[in-house]
Specification:
The chain is α+β, with helices and mostly antiparallel strands. It folds into three domains: 3-127, Butyryl-Coa Dehydrogenase, subunit A, domain 1; 131-250, Butyryl-CoA Dehydrogenase, subunit A, domain 2 (Beta Barrel), CATH 2.40.110.10; 268-394, Butyryl-CoA Dehydrogenase, subunit A, domain 3 (Up-down Bundle). It is built from eleven helices and ten strands. Strands 1-4-5-8 form a four-stranded mixed sheet. α7 (268-277) runs parallel beside α9 and α9 (323-347) runs antiparallel to α11 (383-394). The longest helix has 25 residues, at 323-347. It is globular, with a radius of gyration of 22 Å.
């Protein structure tokens, strides 16, 4: 955001955020911190990141644009500034990413006043961790094929089913989830709930080990789990509509989330430094013309993506109001995958050394980032799904069959 376009109040907040981050930089983590919050596995990792999010929240850098009565700062246009300054400072990411970017905005749009007062502030501070229950063994890209069933029982619902690929489920107190409440209608038979998870009767959390060796993913089983009706979001049968709100925020196609730590696009400088210290036939890889060309192509794409983000905030420059936001998730996830693959190629044979090997370049970051990148091109809708959305909603093409 250009400083000339900021109000005096925003400029003062920007300076405050910059100064606070400089003076309150957290100490080095006592354990290895994963690349993103979705790979957090251990309690020491969780505690370190939770403490940092709590400090940022109490300093006004998380939830800055959310209404004060729900625990936010009550400002306008402050959160983007805070996120940008966090990114510039290179501070840790926010742990409660699902709460900040998915649960909070969904509750603010579809929740009751009681739900907003109960759930928003503890999610902002990371006192309560959230997870997302969308994917099932038979419901991935076909999200509406939900089979987890919610049966009414007085003013309660009884949930039975199986959710999978549940990031942070092992630390979560709450889950946002879609359930089926009618088998007669595919879309109109869905209802959206908030469910307790941590130590809750009938809920079983089982870790899933990824090819990276990390266990940030989980599967969660519901067996006769009783959820009160006041944990339902919006009307019965409106689950698909609520889920689309969640996905809009998850994909970064709408503003109003609680924050998250800023820019997730990896800096090109990391690739340049890796090329300088990697060997190619006795010479630095940075002198290899093919490597140099690939880095330059990434740098051009990086610059274009950053400028597109600025352009998206100027309505007069957007020929279609949702074109740039809707392409964001697709472009970001594929850019990060290409970036990680290039890092692996630059490191060459050394990229076979993994994160526990003391000789691994950049502590094994590149092969780990490359393997994890496939989760990013699948989560929140695969790249294929994103291209269908762009084709149908932006280009006006016929729906795929």
């Amino acid at each position: 955001m250009d400083s000339v376009k900021l109000s005096q109040e925003q400029l003062e907040f920007q300076e405050y955020a910059r100064r606070w981050l400089d003076e309150n930089r957290p100490p080095p983590a006592p354990v290895r911190i994963p690349i993103t919050a979705l790979e957090v596995m251990t309690e020491p990792q969780r505690d370190y990141l939770r403490d940092w999010q709590s400090k940022c929240y109490h300093a006004g850098l998380v939830g800055a644009d959310i209404d004060k009565k729900y625990g936010g700062g009550g400002h306008t246009g402050f959160q983007r500034l805070a996120d940008t300054e966090m990114s510039r400072a290179g501070t840790p990411y926010m742990l409660n990413i699902i709460g900040l970017r998915m649960a909070i905005p969904t509750i603010l749009v579809h929740g009751t006043e009681e739900q907003k007062l109960k759930f928003v502030a503890p999610a902002l501070s990371a006192d309560e961790i959230w997870c997302q229950g969308f994917s099932e063994p038979g419901a991935g890209s076909d999200l509406a094929n939900q089979q987890t069933f919610a049966e009414p029982r007085g003013d309660e619902w009884v949930l039975n089913g199986h959710k999978v690929w549940t990031s942070l489920g092992h630390f979560a107190k709450w889950m946002i989830l879609i359930t089926r409440t009618s088998r007669d209608h595919k879309y109109d038979g869905l209802t959206y709930f908030i469910s307790p998870i941590e130590d809750y009767p009938g809920v079983s959390v089982r870790p899933l080990i990824k090819m990276t060796g990390e266990t940030g993913f989980n599967e969660i089983l519901f067996q006769d789990v009783v959820v009160p009706d006041n944990y339902r979001l919006d009307d019965v049968g409106k689950g698909w509509t609520v889920a689309m709100t969640t996905l809009t925020y998850e994909r970064g196609a709408a503003e109003g989330a609680g924050g998250g730590g800023g820019d997730e696009i990896p800096p090109i400088d990391q690739l340049i430094e890796l090329a300088r210290k990697s060997d190619r036939g006795g010479r630095p890889a940075s002198e290899d013309s093919l490597i140099r060309d690939r880095i330059i192509q990434q740098a051009i794409t990086d610059k274009a993506m950053r400028q597109n983000r600025r352009r998206a905030r100027v309505s007069a420059l957007c020929d279609h109001p949702m074109r740039i936001p809707l392409q964001g998730k697709l472009r970001d996830s594929e850019f990060m995958q290409t970036n990680a693959r290039l890092g692996v190629d630059i490191a060459g044979a050394s990229s076979t050394l993994y994160k526990l090997d003391p000789n691994a370049p950049d502590a094994g970051h590149w092969p780990l980032a490359y393997m994890n990148s496939y989760g990013q091109t699948i989560a929140a809708g695969t790249s294929e799904i994103q291209r269908n959305i762009l084709g149908e909603r932006v280009l006006g093409l016929a729906k795929s069959k």
